[in-house]
Amino acid sequence: MANQQRNRNELHQYWKNPDGENQPRYYKIPVERSRFLHETIKRYANSDAKILEPGCNVGRNLNYLYEAGFAKLTGIEINQNAVEMLKQSYPKMARAARLYNAPIEDVLAKFKRNEFDIVYTMAVLEHIHTDSDWIFAEMQRITKSYLITIEDEAGVSERHFPRNYKQVFEPLGFAQIEEQDCQKVMGSGFVLRVFKKIP
């Protein structure tokens, strides 16, 4: 199966111009996923928290948080069409947030150590090529308090790289404090994990 998986450059090119159900317009719809994320975040942070979403797509999650009172938001998105749709769909949030239109690999190093109170991902790390596993240490570096992953840890395809994120992040200096099967909200194989950074 591994030899059928796309290389990192091919993955970047795909996500810059995805086909089928991965086109940006489809990411505006499942608001229950954003509600689930918000319910998790508010257990660990107040509205003053600085929050980063790598792979924010059209900004549905960021806008949900913005409307819930979170104002210090940053997003990274590789797809220019998704970023344009974000700006058109959620103009107030777009003006308030910091947005980076580039691959995650090109952006994380720009941030300071402990810059974000919370870093979260939703169905993004599963698409990170194994050649970019170094980004996990960067995520640890820029996270001050909590890291939240909502990822498919089982699926394998030309664009999926399954990982157990407890095994990924605990050796890097996090302690897992919550784990939840979120199949009902996200689909088969998805696991919510919340990590607290070890001082």
Name the CATH superfamily classification.
Vaccinia Virus protein VP39
Largest sheet features: 7 strands, mixed
How many domains comprise the coordinates? Answer: 1
For the record, the CATH class is Alpha Beta
Q: What overall geometry do the principal axes of the alpha carbons give?
A: globular
Structural class: alpha/beta
**Ends apart, CA distance between termini:** 39 Å
Number of strands: 7
Order of helices and strands: HHEHEHHEHEHEHEHE
Secondary-structure arrangement, i.e. CATH architecture:
3-Layer(aba) Sandwich
**Tally of separate helices:** 9
Instruction: Give the assembly state of these chains.
Output: single chain
Low-confidence stretches: none
Q: Give the strand order, joined by hyphens, for the main sheet.
A: 3-2-1-4-5-7-6
Q: Cα-atom Rg, whole angstroms?
A: 16 Å
CATH-defined topology: Rossmann fold
**Helix percentage range:** 25-40%
List keywords for this structure.
199 residues, alpha/beta, Rossmann fold, 7-stranded mixed beta sheet, 7 strands
Notes on the protein architecture:
- It is a single chain.
- This protein has helices spanning 8-16, 31-41, 60-67, 80-89, 91-96, 104-107, 135-142, 165-169, 183-186; strands at residues 50-54, 72-77, 98-101, 116-122, 143-152, 174-181, 190-197.
- With 199 residues, it is α/β, with parallel strands linked by helices.
- The chain has one domain (2-197): Rossmann fold, CATH 3.40.50.
- The chain has a seven-stranded mixed sheet with strand order 3-2-1-4-5-7-6.
- The radius of gyration is 16 Å and the shape is globular.
- 41% of the residues are buried.
- The mean pLDDT is 93.
